Structure formats: structure tokens, C-alpha cells
Amino acid sequence: MAAPRRIELVLDSVKRLLRIGATANLLNLLQKQHPADLAQVFSDLVDKDREATFSLLADRNGRLAMEAVSELGPEAGAALLATRPAEEIAKLAQEIPSDDAAALIDHLPEDLSAAVLDLMRPKESGVVENLLEYDEQTAGRIMNPHVFALSEDMTVGEAITELQSNRDVEMVFYLYVVDERNHLVGVVSLRRLLLVSPETPLKRIMTADLTSARADMDQEEVARIVASYNLLAIPVVDEENKLVGVITVDDVIDVIKDEATEDIYRLAGVSGDERAFTPAGESLRKRLPWLGVNLATAFMAASVVALFEGTISQITALAVFMPIVAGMGGNAATQTLTVIVRGIALGELSWGNSRKALIKEAMVGIGNGVVLGLVAAVVAYATRGDAVLGLILGAAMIINMFVAATAGTLVPLGLRAANIDPALASSVFITTLTDVFGFFSFLGLATVFMKYLVRAG
Amino acid sequence: MAAPRRIELVLDSVKRLLRIGATANLLNLLQKQHPADLAQVFSDLVDKDREATFSLLADRNGRLAMEAVSELGPEAGAALLATRPAEEIAKLAQEIPSDDAAALIDHLPEDLSAAVLDLMRPKESGVVENLLEYDEQTAGRIMNPHVFALSEDMTVGEAITELQSNRDVEMVFYLYVVDERNHLVGVVSLRRLLLVSPETPLKRIMTADLTSARADMDQEEVARIVASYNLLAIPVVDEENKLVGVITVDDVIDVIKDEATEDIYRLAGVSGDERAFTPAGESLRKRLPWLGVNLATAFMAASVVALFEGTISQITALAVFMPIVAGMGGNAATQTLTVIVRGIALGELSWGNSRKALIKEAMVGIGNGVVLGLVAAVVAYATRGDAVLGLILGAAMIINMFVAATAGTLVPLGLRAANIDPALASSVFITTLTDVFGFFSFLGLATVFMKYLVRAG
Hints:
2 copies of one chain form a homodimer. In chain A, 68% of the residues lie in helices and 6% in strands. The first copy, chain A, is mainly α. A 3-stranded mixed sheet of chain A has the order 1-2-3. In chain A, strands 4-5-6 form a 3-stranded mixed sheet. In chain A, strand 2 and strand 3 (184-189) form a beta hairpin.
């Protein structure tokens, strides 16, 4: 078992062997590793060492090298591949399943990926090109087109013989059954084959009522089905119900991780395909638009403050406390928003049962507002000796936390109902709202009750 | 296949049949559903209807009812179970695998769970109690203790016979091989059994080098191993390498989802076990401490503003623009923080390769600062006619976005190195820092260059 410590030992040895140029020993060590561990080693090495190690391994054991590259993920994997000439990439790409090859080739620079496809064997590149014709993030894009299928006219004995002569098909646990025109008609589990006599017709023991995914189905929906029915694999069919591929649970796990990353990122205004080591220029281009929108909304909130400059010039303490009202509203809104957005993503929450969620969040908002408003009021009074200022601060906080809670619930649910990703747009809306309401309620109350407030100076 | 639309149709029928009291038809409909679909129906019904439907189904088909409850997840599932008397819960709990029963019982109110354990058959409750003795979030807690194991002295033929007489063992794909004292010594895939003659000794075809998890291993580590090696199941052993259970990939998917939820929540200051329909009182108690810490840090930032009240009283425009500097720093820091925290969670980032990440983020921070600072400077100059104010605003934004980027990288990596969850503590630290630095740089620069600024009034 590759505990983190073991990988570190391997990594240290790799670095040492690279340094002293002990190529034979290095190759020996690399070939003993699991592709997932090699991927970890690759990602921990500096660029130069990673490329040297990969090129060494690729010459000797192309399949293992490519499996490791595949485990790196399409972005990092393609970046490493792109350091090699197109001829070599084309040769290496044929070592791994077409779906993995397609994902890598799709992430190569455009001219390089075209060159690679040209250089691959026509049959292989045809399969990859077919996969790339499906839209991104659909079942067709992530499926393995080499699916092991049996004819419905076979007996169990024939099926076992067929299985024995196809030893290199990956991860077979369900055997899909098709009719003479390749329509998916049933499924038999491997285990079932062991429990009946060889002459039994497959038709008799297959389950005809099976769950499949259309090739154009969103990968998130595929993942949801596989996860909720605890499947190990799901067959993929075209619009005529012809079997075109299979998606295994390990691919589904990758989808679940990616979708979770996307949700986390969107809440923070980061694009779903950015990673820790995305080049700085690309990250900058991806993050700037969202920050630009935020800057515009920040000026909007600032214009609310500007309305009350007259009040602030007389009571500067207002400038001291106003960020607290806005900031605490933003924090409370982020909590609500996160719970609601995640509830939608996990399928627990919809527009249908939103009333219950709204009532709950409103109560939590008022509760938080009362407790924190009281504390803030006492602190303001203690530090400033102005009871009215404390009361206004407390009241503004209660109002703003109520606004935060209701908006934090309604905005994502409303976006969802309008078919917009709730995580994408919510946080900008919500924090703008809490800033505007925070400044307005606090400075507005202060303006109304100005004559009771202690003047500065 | 249960598309969302189909579930809605089922849900509508359930509501209608409940309303007209057509119990027989309702039971008929419910019994045709997959447990995962039933769970969805349960969660979409109002409390009263959910309890009525569950109790109806539990009387007729306890296993299906409990499988659906299990699919609801431990919190919501236990809440639904808790509406039934202890005797009934004890009977129902015996219908599902012990690991699922343990998860539900663990989430019942304390006195109820004790009563249920007392009322279960001694053998069953013993297994559940054993599971509950493992720490939360460990392999032991989520494993299924009913693992199908074969003796190393068997032949392939005997193994197949053994398998045939254990038809109800769930999800068998790997057959674990143990010695006479139950030590785990190897694994054979189901498929392998089909490919060799019945008299072959298991010992000859088993793989002795297999990946296992210690019962006290963190569930996140288990999930990482299963996901990176693309396993369908992992055997769980005790400290003497004796086989004590198995964790299947469907449990791993639940762990991955839960851990992603925890990460998303922690970044927003929400506790990992809160859900959209956690009762308001409980949510309030869970969210208040984090908001309390935020309030304290907000007052800290406010005290920085208070240092400059003299400046603000002369130039009130500063109060208008200062939230922009602090807020944009906070937004940029959140982006960096999210990418870094997720990079750590996905295993792409460690203290070892942090230098590269730091340089990248610093460059992105300065880049964002220059672009946005320039825009802000122009807008401030255009609306206020004060070029120096614009320059100060732009400069403060560049400084604060640089601080945001470096702190957003170093704080989570530092916390990780100190074995503190980086997601948990980072956001409070970071936004306090960007508030303090934002106010300080902007108001500080304004104070230094005050004589060049246009006075208010």
C-alpha cells in the first residue's frame, strides 16, 4: 500500500538517481510503481526533472508512462505530453484506452492535437475523433467505447468462452447483452454466470430492466445515477438505444470530484478548470472578469456611502463602524448561501421545498442578528460612550442579517429555477446586497437620529 | 431509469394516494421503486406525509423502507426513524447491513439509540456496537463487517461452491483469501475464477500483494486510496492484519461527497454536519461561534479606521472609497485561498512545492491589482475630480491585492504544515488581514499625502 510516506521515499530516490544519472536503476524503480503513485511522483518533481523522468519511462514502458500521465488529469497530463514531439505522442496515445487518450489530446495546444490525430493509426484516431465529437461534460465524452457486449442468442457457456478470449478488456463486472442490431437489451452480472449451468440461454438469466445513460446526458446526471443506485458501471446508448460505450465507477468518482471543485470555485468566483499550477497569465485572465464585476458592485455600494457624506463629516465614528455592518452581513450571507447551494447540488433542495428552508434561514438570520447586534451595541457603547450609536449599530446589524439570510436563500433558488448555476452568480449578488443594505440601514438610521448622536471633535 | 421527471410523477401519485387514503395502491406503487428513488420521494414530502408513507411501507416491507432510509443519509434517515417506537426501530435495523444500521443508530437521540441497541438481537447489536467503537470518520466505522472470505487451502472449484451457497452477500467482485487465523493473505478477482480449471489451488492464482486499509485509518485516506488505484472495494484489517471488513466503492463515493461538502462549508464558516434542513436552533448554535470570531476581527479592522478619524473628518471621500480597497482585497484573497485549499485537498499541493504556487499567486495578485487599481483610480478621479485621491486608491489596491495573494497562499499552506485543516481557519485570518491592510494602506497613504487632497465641503 502506498502510504504518503512511501511515496516520499520513492520521490527522494528518484531525485537522487536523476542527480547521479543512474538511469538503469531509475527505470527499475519507476517500473515497480503503480501509475497513480507515479503520477504523484511526477507532480512533486520540478518541471525539468518531471520531463526527464517521463521521457525516460516513455521510451522503455510507454503504457505505464501514459497511464501515469492519465492519472495526472487531462490538464497537467497534456502539459507534460506537450513537451514531446507529435510523432511520439501519437504512438504513446495508442497505449491507453481511447477515452483517456481523447481527454489528453483534447487538452493539447490546438495545432499539436491536430498533428497527433493525423499521425495516429486511422482506426485509433477515428475512435478518439468520435469521442471528441460529443459535447464536453457529456456521457459520450467520458465513456469508454470499447465495451464488452454479448449477443442475446448466446448460452452462458458461450459467454464464458467469449470472456476468456477477451482477457484485456478492462474492469468487467456487468456483461451487457445486445440484439443483432446492437440495441441494448439486458445485463448479466459476472457472478450470475457462475451460478447457473453452461447451457442456460443468456436471455433467461439477463435482467432486461436496466439503467443506461444517453450519450448526450450531462456527466453530472450520470454521476448522480451511478452514485444513487450504487452502480459499478453504466452502459451508454445512442438515441436509438444502441450500445456505444460504458462508464465505470472510477470515471464517475473523477466527475464527482471535478463537480465539487467547480462548486467550491464558483462560490469564490474562480473558473472551474483552474488548478493550483495553472500558469499565472491564464489565472489572471480567468479571475479578472469576476473581480471586475465585483469592482463595479463595490462602487455601487460606495455610492450609497456617498449619499451620507454629510452625516459622516459630522460623526466620523460612523465611518469606523459601517464596515462592521456590511462585513457581518456578508459573512452571514455566505454561510446561508453555501448551505443552500450545496443543498441544491446534493439534490436535497428545490424550489418545491424552498419555503421551509426560507423560514428556517430567516429565523437563523434574526437570531444571529439579535445576538451579534447586542454584542456590537455594547462594544460600541463601551468604546465610544454613545448609547444611541450602539443602538443604531445593533439595529442595523439585525436588519442586515435578516436581509442576508433571505437573499442568501432566495437568490440561489431563484437562479436554479431560471436554469442558471446558483453557485456561479450568487456570491456577487449577495455580497453587493449586504454591502448596500448594510451601509444604507446603518448610515440611514444615523442620519434620522443624528440629533441624538455625539458629534465628533 | 429514474429521470427527475419520473420521480416527480411518482411523487405526485404518492401525494394523491395519500390524500384519498388509497393505502393498497400506495403500497403497490412504493414497492415498485428503487430505494434511492424512494429516498428522493421521502425528502420531497412534507414531514407529516413522509412519516405516514414511511410507517405504511415499514409495516409491509421493512427491508425496502430501511434501504430508502439509509439512502436518505444518516442525519435525515435517523430523524425519520426517530418518529417510530424503539421496538420497531430495533426490528427494522436488522433488515439492513450492520454498517448502515450503525450509521443510523449513531444519529438517533442518545436515550433512543441505547434503547434500540438493548432491544436488538444480541448478535446483531453486538456487531453494531463493535462498529460504533471505532472512531468517527475511520475505516472501521464505515466498513461492512460481513466480508466474504475464502480459505487459502481451497481450490477454485471449492471457492465457486462456497460462492454459490452465499447468494446474499452484497457486491462481491474481489474474493479475499485468509489463512487459518483469519490473516489477510491475498485476493482473487471473480473473473479470474472463470478463467482457470476448478482444481487450481486458490493460492496459485491469488495476488498476494494487495492494498488494504487499517480499521483506524481516516476515511478520507481510504477514499483517496480507492480513488487513485481505481478499486471497487478495499479490505479492512486490524492491527494484526486480520480481515475485519470491507469498504465498497459506493461508500467511498459518499465519503468523497461528504468531504467535499466539509471543505465547501469550512471555507464559509459552516460546520461540516449542517444540512439545508438542520433545525434553525441547531444551525444558529453552529454558526454563531464563527460569526462571533468574525465580529471580533471586524472590530479589530474598525480600530484601524479609528486611528484615521482625524483624516476622515477632513476628507469624507475616504470613507466612501475605503470599503472598496478592503472588499476587493477580500475577494482576491478568497479566490487564491480557494484554489490553494482545493489544491491541498486534491493532493496537488504541499509545503514542498509551495514556492512555485506562491510566486504564481503573487504575480496574479500584482497583475489584478494593477488592472483594477487603474480602473478604480480613473473612476475615483472622474467622479471626484481629485487625481491624488485616485492615485492613492489605485496604489492601496495594488498593495492590498499583493497582500491578499501572498497571505491567501501562505496561511493555508502553513496551517496544513501545522496539521490544522487549512479550510477551517483560513478565511477568518485572510479577510481580517485584507481588511486591516486595506484600511491601513488607503487611509495611511491619504494621511501622508493629505495636503495634496481636495478637502470636503
